[in-house]
Amino acid sequence: MSESQIQVPDSFLALFQTGPGRRLTEAWHHILARYEYCEDLAQALAPQARALVADLGVTADAVAHKMAAGLQDPSVGLAPEEAQWVCTRLVELLEHGL
């Protein structure tokens, strides 16, 4: 793999695994770069999402669902499964106050 100290969670690795033994479908450096992008995006969206939860009095899931539509835009540069992962991660960040 890589000498990177970044721990890619299993939930993200699953996006790039297939077949017996759950082999990786992409090179490790690609997966690591995609993970860093997706995690950074979730972290960047968290303050805006927190404000929406507070201002609108809605759940973290509702805010993430609304943001999911924007993440599907091709200009964001996410595959559909990555956009879903970002939304799931965003909910985790909101629910755990991270």
Mean pLDDT: 91
* SSE succession: HEEHHH
Strands, count: 2
> What is the strand content?
under 5%
Distance between the termini: 28 Å
Q: Into which percent range does the helicity of residues fall?
A: 55-70%
Radius of gyration over all CA atoms, rounded: 14 Å
Which sheet architecture does the biggest sheet show? 2 strands, antiparallel
What oligomeric state do the depicted chains represent? single chain
Choose one word for the global shape: elongated
Q: How are strands sequenced across the largest beta sheet? A: 1-2
Continuous helix count: 4
Can you tell me the residue ranges where pLDDT is under 50 for at least 5 consecutive residues?
none
Helix/strand/pairing class, anyone?
Answer: mainly alpha
Layout of secondary structure:
Elements: H1 10-13, E1 17-18, E2 23-24, H2 28-56, H3 60-71, H4 80-95
Antiparallel strand pairs: 1-2
Helix pairs in contact: 2-3, 2-4, 3-4
